[in-house]
Amino acid sequence: MQISAGNNGQASDSPVGATAPFRRISFGFGLINLSAKIAVHNKACTNHHVRQWDGWDARVKDDPGRWAGSAVRWVSALRTLLVLLLSAHAALVVGVQGATAARAQGEISATRAAFAAPEGITRFVLELSDEPAPRFFVVDGPPRLVMDLDGVAFDITAEVETAGVVSAWRYGALSGETGRIVFELSTPALIARHFFVAGREGRPDRLVVDLEPVQPDVFTSATRGAVAHKSASIKAEGAGDEMVVVLDPGHGGIDPGATSPGGIVEKDLALIFAQRLKGELDALPGVRAALTRTDDRFLPLNRRIRVARAYGADLFISIHADAAPQDYVQGATVYTLSERPSDAEAAALAARENLSDAVPGGVEPDAQEDVSGILADLLRRETKSFSNAFALDLVDSLKPTIRMNVSPHRFARFRVLMAHDIPSVLLELGYLTNEDDARVLMDPQWQAKAAAAVTKAVATFFGVGDTAQAGAYAEKLGSATRMQQ
Hints:
Elements: E1 2-5, H1 19-51, H2 53-62, H3 64-105, E2 108-116, E3 122-128, E4 134-139, E5 144-150, E6 152-154, E7 166-173, E8 178-185, E9 189-197, E10 205-213, H4 216-225, H5 230-237, E11 243-249, H6 266-282, E12 287-291, H7 301-310, E13 315-322, E14 332-337, H8 344-354, H9 374-398, E15 404-412, E16 424-431, H10 435-441, H11 444-462, H12 470-484
Parallel strand pairs: 2-6, 11-12, 11-13, 13-16, 14-15
Antiparallel strand pairs: 1-7, 2-3, 3-10, 4-5, 5-8, 7-8, 9-10, 14-16
Helix pairs in contact: 1-3, 2-3, 4-5, 6-11, 9-11, 9-12
């Protein structure tokens, strides 16, 4: 591993940059240019000799030695031209291979880094040319945090002063396609959160990592569990044995969502209901609820999944209120993920919700989770089955309590439900474009009944306080699996 010291930002012993291969390419093109000039000269000479062929024919008969000497000169010129062309081709191939190797070492360029220590945390900011896929783990004796970045090459030239719990850092190429950063910690610390900020208005993309001090035993547990996040370490240690339900109030910030004729805004309704539902879920034994947003802020769809993972979610519920061109359409609907939509309305709703990221001017990549292989495919299938099982529990619990849509369980390709490892549903509480729905959706009594029904479904799904439901749950899980196959 070729490492550059990060304390002063100097790239000592850093991997050879991509300039040398391009010099070889330039040299190759120079040889090609020279060869082309020789070829042009020889062509001119050939044309001249062709025009004088008749005269040469007569002279050759009179002077055979002169013809032999001319033939030798032609063969020598052709041999020289062939050597030059082969040399140019070899130089070009070497240059292209060198450039390809340089690109393979890191297609994303890390150009600047900074540390800060605001309000008890240590923040590391790395400026890059594109979004990376970081992987973290911690090592003890002495305590260190390691971050691996696939496809990242380092081009950091400015001095970088550490701060907070980071006493020193270094970076470099771990392999031909992976960069590594090592943070030496003055005290045990784990990642409280990390997130990516897309560059706008001339500002570069940034990866932000926040570190918080932890007790030595928590850090030691993290090293054994090959984790680096504070929440994951606490859960692995056994201090967080609860089942975690992450509630996702839809839209937010500059993305208002749907609006009723009376002025009810979807983003506000979703947050109010999510906060009420959180209180109900927290009262369940062995269950803890968390929100992806607690105020009026915008979150990209993929970021909501990352927040759920940071909480260690066992279940993800995205909360919305629908809108329809026909004002008579009403009732709550539960949606799950499927590549093939259940109907045209479900497909249209998914298309609208998936465009939420376009509101601030930048749409995140529309791609599945970057997991592959047989085990990953099995994980997706299992997660899909659990999602459908919870959807059935939720519909069964809501039906006696609130008005449901004529098609209460639908499915489509919702990006916010694409976590391959977290059972996920999207709950549309009702239609803001329907007068009756809009009137009850903001009613505290209606919200209390709906929240109690959702809480009952969660209790059924997790089997909280009633182990006798295990058989019925297994049967329901099999039905859900068959329905989506």
